[in-house]
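Lab notebook: predicted structure, single chain.

Context: the supervisor wants predicted structures on file for every construct in the current expression panel, including those that have not yet been purified. This is the next one on the list. No modifications to the sequence; it matches the entry in the shared construct table.
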Amino acid sequence: MNSIFHRTSVRHYMMSQKVEKEKIELMLRAAMAAPSAGNQQPWEYYVVTDRHKLGELAMCSPYAASTGRAPLAFVACYRKMTQLSEYAEIDMSASVENLLLEADTLGLGAVWMGIAPVRDRMERVKTVLGIPDMIEAFAIIACGYPQDETKQQDRYEENRVHYVE
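Prediction complete. Output recorded below exactly as produced.
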C-alpha cells in the first residue's frame, strides 16, 4: 500500500480540473469499506461541489480554509445510534482515512479538517448543509487535483515502539 507512505495533506488544488464522478464514487466506496464497531457502519457522506457552500464550509472552522479553495469537499457525518454510539467517531476516523488513501491512489490530493468533537463547529456545518438532527457532522475533507507534489515526511520514531515479550 504505497499510498500510506505517499499521502500528504494537500491544501491547494487546480480549480479548473473537476474531480470525476467515477473517482468520487471510488473514494466513497473506500470510505464505506472501513471497519466499524459491531459492523454498524454509522457513516453518511455529503458531497459538496457548490462554490457558495464550499465557501460557507470554509468559515465553519479556523482550520477549514482549504475548503474554499477546493473543487470538492466531502462532509463526513455519522448517524446517532443507540448501540455502540460511543465508537462512532472512531469508526469515522477509519472511514476518513480510507477515503484519503483512495484519493491519493487516484492521483488526487485531500486534507482532513476535524469538526468533531467541537460542538459549535459541528452545528455550523449542520446548518450550512441542512443536516438532519439524527446526523452529526464529523469532518470536512477538501479534495481535488493537487497544484504541487509534496513528499511525505518519514515520521517513524523507533523510540516510540515498545516490545512486550
